[in-house]
Amino acid sequence: MTSQDWNADEYSEHAAFVAELAVDVIKLLAPCSGERILDLGCGDGRLTKFLQEQGCDMYGIDGSPEMIEKTQELGIPCAVMDGHSLTFNSEFDAVFSNAALHWMTQPRDVVKGIYAALKPGGRMVVEFGGKGNTKKIMTAISETLAESGQPDYDLPWYFPDEQEYTTVLEEAGFEVQQIELVNRPTPLESGMRKWLELFTSGITANMDDEARLAFQDNVCAKLRPELFDLEQGWWADYVRLRVKATKPL
Question: Which tens digit of pLDDT belongs to each residue from 178-188?
Answer without folding.
Answer: 999 999 999 99
